[in-house]
Sequence to fold (316 residues):
Amino acid sequence: MKSEIKLVFKDFLMQPPKGVKFQLLIDGLVIDDNIVQNDDKPRIYSLVSDKTQTAITRSDAQKLPSIKSRDSYEVTVQIVGNSGAKKAMHTATLNSGKSLSIVAVSPWVKVPLSTSGKVSNDTFYEVEYGVKRRDETRTVKVVIQDMPRRILMEALSHRGSTEWAGNKVKHSLPHPTLKKSVEFRAESNKCNVFVYDVLTAIGVNVAMIEHGSSKYIPGYSKVSPPTAGEWADENRLLNSWSAEKSPLPGDVGAYAVNYSDASGHVGFVLTQGVCISASWDKIEVNDVGFRIASGNAARSDHDFTIFRRYKFSKPQ
Fold:
């Protein structure tokens, strides 16, 4: 008699996680001890039973330990941490001769912050960032728990890019609802455009804000992505973004200052003290927004005063 288990892993944004070690147990016995790769393909386990023993084969033709034949089996999926600690994610019953599908959704995500694609079993990942006022490069260890993975991976994929440089013309990504792009002129700061483009690229519908209207043309208005100052306003953007005082990875950090050419600065928090954002020249990972608190500030520096946290478990 043949039975089948289909196992799919998802993170809390319903994306395939990467580098997560797991075990599949049947009736308390470890049948598969493996690492989740970054793919959507289900792991299929075929169970073929005779009167006494049940042979198990994985979808890659790997033969796994056999078990005693029964009318039903208890199937458990558990995650194995770097320390060896184990946490059960899902338990279900497989009846002999039937098929069981398990979608194991993890409330936390383990992904390397580099874009090398290497699988890692570490709980921590090191990220280099610049301490500009001291002309230093440091590394920080980031714990990947409850991280808005898609936001940070999209942002980090642009590290070093000059696409949002101040001396270039930049067209924003088309808004998913309005189906329109906004042109930002050369010789203008574009930190808010970077935030908008990253969020739009992963499917987040960022509210467009009116930044000009005409009393001579009825119905005319000029809408564009939120400015840094609007991200920093705790009374704005509340439909999708909470306003927090302490940062978590994936938050949008912002402060408002009345510069002659900008309303402040905005970027994505990697961890306490580290941000990825658009500077005048390129996309940088450094300590902007945290320099006063860390003691690395010049007189003109400002720290983030607010951290905006996306309210939903998946982009919408």
About this structure: The CA atoms of residues 171 and 183 lie 4 Å apart.
